[in-house]
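quick q for whoever's on today - can somebody do inverse folding on this one?? i tried earlier but teh output was garbage lol. tokens:
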């Protein structure tokens, strides 16, 4: 399933080269165009590609809308500083996770199937990843932010990104609140970074 999460981001509809997004589908095409460029770039080093991925995710996702839904009710009681820290940490986690998964891209294609407007502020775009003989359904949820449509959730094979992280964080939030969750998130990322450094060093030996 994780592979399809990142493929849901990096796949590009053939011929989709929109400059301006007037509809949710057009906005989605622009987003995956940007990520496609990162996935297929053979000249940039890891640090450059990771930074580029972070930039794209930070602009194409509505991290405020996503964060509210991940943290759920405790978000209302969080301070402005805690909310900012969570959004920054969440961006780091998403970037690090999807950078590793980005390496799985192998020229799959995507079809944009259906767009549903939910009032004037929300939209759903249904797509399908074509991977060999498989056709994997992926649903995107978008929100209108000013004049732009931004993604706040995507759901490959019925598994929501928002629901997955909300479930993972629920226990810590119930026990320690947002501040406790921030501590645990930082610890987790530091542990992952240390493990990666060890693996990289071993690979060089």
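ok took a stab at it. sequence:
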């Amino acid at each position: 399933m994780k592979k399809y999460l990142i493929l849901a981001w990096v796949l590009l509809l053939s011929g989709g080269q929109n400059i301006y997004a007037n509809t949710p589908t057009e906005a989605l095409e622009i987003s995956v165009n940007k990520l496609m460029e990162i996935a297929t770039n053979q000249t940039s080093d890891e640090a450059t590609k990771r930074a580029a991925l972070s930039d794209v995710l930070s602009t194409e996702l509505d991290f405020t809308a996503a964060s509210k839904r991940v943290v759920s009710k405790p978000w209302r009681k969080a301070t402005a500083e805690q909310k900012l820290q969570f959004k920054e940490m969440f961006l780091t986690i998403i970037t690090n996770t999807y950078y590793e998964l980005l390496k799985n891209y192998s020229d799959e294609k995507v079809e944009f199937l259906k767009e549903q407007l939910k009032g004037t502020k929300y939209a759903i775009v249904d797509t399908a990843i074509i991977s060999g003989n498989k056709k994997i359904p992926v649903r995107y949820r978008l929100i209108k932010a000013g004049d732009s449509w931004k993604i706040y959730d995507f759901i490959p094979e019925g598994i929501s990104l928002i629901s997955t992280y909300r479930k993972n964080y629920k226990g810590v939030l119930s026990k320690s609140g947002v501040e406790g969750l921030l501590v645990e998130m930082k610890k987790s990322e530091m542990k992952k970074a240390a493990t990666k450094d060890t693996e990289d060093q071993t690979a060089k030996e």
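fwiw The mean pLDDT is 83. also Residues 63 and 87 are 6 Å apart (CA to CA). so keep that in mind when u check it
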